[in-house]
Amino acid sequence: MKYNTEEQKLALPEYGRNIQNMVDYCLTIQDREERKRCANTIINIMGNMFPHLRDVNDFKHILWDHLAIMADFKLDIDYPYEIVKKENLYKRPPRLVYNRSRIRYRHYGKTLELMIRKATEFEPGAEKDQLIKLLATQMKKSFLTWNKETVDDRKIFKDLDELSAGKIVLDEEQHKLLESRDLLARNNNKKQFNRKGGR
User: Fold this and answer.
1) Both ends of the chain: CA-CA distance in Å?
2) What is the distance of C-alpha 81 from the center of its chain?
3) Is the pLDDT of residue 143 over 60?
4) Which tens digit of pLDDT belongs to each residue from 66-78?
5) How far apart, in whole angstroms, are the C-alpha atoms of residue 17 and residue 4?
6) For 7, which DSSP code?
7) Nearest Cα to Cα of residue 159 among 103, 197, 81
8) What is the distance, to the nearest Å, from the Cα of residue 23 to the centroid of all Cα atoms in its chain?
9) Most confident range, picked from 3-12, 99-108, 149-158, 161-170
10) What is the DSSP letter of 164?
């Protein structure tokens, strides 16, 4: 009896030894048309092994790539797709460049900082005032996500002043934000609504 450990290592073990044997046999077929028919049959069998993946984009293309890999790229047929190149198979992907820009206040996040900077470019008027009020309210919400107790509006206005490089200065007498307890209650209501299956 011959053990699997004595057999040649499988290129793609998920397809099993029988499919690999079919691919090896396909490589020995001399007639090009017959070889292509054999390859198509193997692809159909491979597809039947994973019926739940039929809805995956490019499923057939993936199968043809797998056939080429199992044949060690030696199968001489006209592939219906452009198959993966052997040299690209084990090539490392390019290194991802991460944004290393400094975030002044992590609890506000980078996006809020960028939005504040953008708000400074708006012309004075109702639109700018409304945007600043929304940004200040969002800052307060973000702050309360990390500090569940309370936050004074003066702290938000001070941070807004700093993040806008002194271009947005709000007076606490003229500008009132929602109370911390109201914002926290809204957040809790939203969480409960989401837990119950709401959108």
Assistant:
1) 60
2) 26
3) yes
4) 999 999 999 999 9
5) 9
6) S
7) 103
8) 35
9) 161-170
10) T
Q: Which residue has the higher pLDDT, 23 or 95?
A: 23
Rounded Cα distance, 41 and 34, in Å: 11
Burial class (CB in 10 A: 0-12, 13-18, 19+), 69: middle
3-class SS of residue 111: helix
Residue whose token pair is 């944004």 = 99
How many C-beta atoms lie closer than 10 Å to residue 120's C-beta? 14
Query: Which residue in 42, 133, 28, 114 sits closest to 79, CA to CA?
Result: 42
Non-local CB neighbours of 98 within 8 Å, separated by 6+ positions:
none
Question: What are the tokens at 15?
Answer: 């397809």
190 pLDDT above the threshold of 80: no
Q: How far apart are CA 191 and CA 199, in angstroms?
A: 11
64 backbone dihedrals φ, ψ, rounded to 5°: -65, -40
Q: What pLDDT score does 186 carry?
A: 64
pLDDT at 31 over 90: yes
Q: What percent of the chain has pLDDT over 70?
A: 85
Residue-wise DSSP of 24-84 = HHHHH--SHHHHHHHHHHHHHHHHHH-GGGTTSTTHHHHHHHHHHHHTTT---S--SS-PP
CA distance linking residue 180 with residue 112, whole number of Å: 19
